[in-house]
Amino acid sequence: MAGIENFPAIASIQGNGYATTLASGKHILIADEPIDLGGTDKGPTPGDYLRMALASCTIITLRMYANRKEWNVDEIKVTVDTIQENTSTLFKRNIEIKGNLDDEQRKRMLQIANACPVHKVLSQSIHIETQIH
Length: 133
What we know:
133 residues, alpha+beta, GMP Synthetase, Chain A, domain 3, 2 domains, three-stranded antiparallel β-sheet, two-stranded antiparallel sheet, 3 helices, 32% helix
């Protein structure tokens, strides 16, 4: 896995609505807010994308490792939810692995999940530098 330093994320919005076009490399996505918050629900919210980033990074990292080890893993499912706790956010990640793995292999898969690049970024101090032009 190449990590998270691939293409810049570019977001653009026009008009008064919240539907936002997101681009990264050749990929185009839509982010929006639910109707009850004034959006049009044309896409996931930014928070949904953050949770999906952790879930997809985890699952890809686990699949790469299982493939490299030639372990019998039929299916991996990762669910990520967030809970706001005062000034911090708790990411609750649940990993389901279907396949013929023993207890030691499952413990190793947990270690590998915690080593995915997005997990590493979210687990350390984050600084955001912003400029307005």
